[in-house]
User: Fold AAA+ ATPase domain-containing protein from Hydnum rufescens UP504.
Amino acid sequence: MSLWVDKYRPRTLDALHYHKELSERLASLAASGDFPHMLFYGPSGGGKKTRIACTLRELFGPGVEKLKIDQRVFETPSKRKLDVNIVQSNFHIEITPSDVGIYDRVVIQEILKEIAQTQQVDLSAKQRFKVVIINEADSLSRDAQAALRRTMEKYMSNMRIILCANSTSKLIAPIKSRCLLMRVAAPSEVEMEAALRHVAKEEKFDLPDNACEEIIKDSGGNLRKALLVLEALKMQSFTRFISNINIAKPDWESYCGKVAELIIQKQTPDQLYELLSHCIPPTVVLKTIADRVVDMVDESLKGDIMHWAAFYEVRMRIGSKKIFHLEAWVIKVMSLQKHMYYGVDLTGVGFETVANVQQFIMEVLDGGIVQIVGGAICGRNMKGRFVAEL
Assistant:
């Protein structure tokens, strides 16, 4: 028994419920015989992978759905073994190189070289090239992206690459210039309602209007999440779908709310490390906590808090130690709070010397040790370590 999100996933471009113009464009490209490298980008749950699968079916026919999963072992120059799961058919291969972290360049080079140097063996195939789908392309390291750029130029004749990403901001310009960009926007509320009612009709139950509105509001444009919530609520009600529903939040999301309360009320992110230790992506942690903090602070602080959240998110992408940038944003928020309530000037005018800055941070931390490490002021008290830039 499969989940509804997989059971009712459209198999062809004609069956897609929204972005009809995009579906027509993809069908036209698939029929043209001159299929380019492509980059699908947009928010999670918008339908990127579904459209990629439908485009592949349009290119190669139903045989592309006969999938097998292999586990391949790659070896780094330092003789380290890397295990990577690969989904493939006779016509395409799907990989997620970011699973191996900083060694993604090795996976990219080995697989693409292997695919590019082999010809299409299925004589009944509509196309003479194979397709490589790279998931989470925006998580690729710069080295992997450079390797991908060279391969895209060299093996265009018998290989096409389809990249799938949430954002294009982390991709280097040469890769974007070699791909046809396809933005898959999040569905509107009307389109989401149509998709939910289609599933409800297929499952033979009535979906109350207010329940549908609550699910759409909670999902925030993520159709995958909306379908999962719909199925969970239907399983809870068993016989019929009740109109008064209570959508439970994921544990990590509730935890982010508690951390936000600690930052504002107790001036400490006591449980910040717990979220990262449970493999919640740092950028998701930052975004979720920032949303919660903004709901709790004065109107005059909201713009500054979101500005610094965006600033440290960029720093997080560039740097390697994510926790440092999360801590830096937390202490920035706490400092903004102090500035508003106590009238402390944080622009540097009130701090004539480094000693003054250290003294201020000691006051923020209620004592503890404050020292300068690598151009940043580090403070430590009984409840944790905080980092603030000079």
About this structure: The first strand starts at residue 38 and ends at 41. Confidence is low (pLDDT under 50) at residues 348-354, 367-390. The beta strands are 38-41, 68-75, 81-88, 92-95, 130-134, 159-165, 180-183, 369-373, 376-381, 384-389.
